[in-house]
Amino acid sequence: RPPMVSPVGEDATEDLQKAASGVEAQALVEQELSSADQGQVLSKMAKYQAPQRSGDIVMIQSEHMGTIDILSADLESADLLGDHRKVSPPLMAPPCIWTFAKMKEFKSKLGKEKNCRLVVKRGEVVTIRVPTHPEGKRVCWEFATDDYDIGFGVYFDWTPVTSTDITVQVSDSSEDEDEDEEDEEEIEGKFSVRGSRSSLRGRYGEVMPVYRRDSHRDVQAGSHDYPGEGIYLLKFDNSYSLLRNKTLYFHVYYTS
């Protein structure tokens, strides 16, 4: 008996063979594109030469296939979107601090000096910027207030010193500070006041954190040895006060 053959069997077989050939061709193309993508990924990562570290990943999407490659990398030193390195400042040595009780004599002496007395308004932070001096090895400070306490802290800005002038910077709060210089106004030819708004940056070293001092009872004093070239930031913080301005008497100098 002759074998039973479907009238469409031969055509279907031919179609299946063509389809299989198409699938194989597509697979070869995809494999070639995948190899090209891997080459592109490796070439992209080669130019960064970042040390691999567990916990950090970089995700790169293929332009051809839409696949995502996950690679380990140090994002702080090799950012695919740009170089945004975060370098922590070195730890600072602690300052020497002390108090003394000659409040009246101190205020009387500095009260005659216009550049050593100012008012820290309610809600404000005043930052006295004191550059390191080429002939000095240590910065020293003394301050007192009338009637009420004030917050005080010291930071160090690791930046090249272009001038030894002492400047006074005023901001609305302890978080709205630093180098956004807007207006400058000379005061008695010795100090300048600069209004600014920005945040503390990572390059600042903390010598002494800001906290409230009983500067209305005893004169607050301290010193700190230069860690290198830079600018000391003496911060007088009255941002916690909603009603009272604080009259501040201060004396800043360097010793060798």
UniProtKB/TrEMBL annotation:
Acidic residues composition-biased segments: 173-187
Protein name: Protein TMED8
Organism superkingdom: Eukaryota
UniProt-listed InterPro entries: GOLD_dom, GOLD_dom_sf, Golgi-PI4KB_interaction
Classification via PANTHER family: LD35087P, PROTEIN TMED8
Keywords: Acetylation
Region (Disordered): 1-21, 168-191
Domain GOLD per the UniProt entry, residue ranges: 94-254
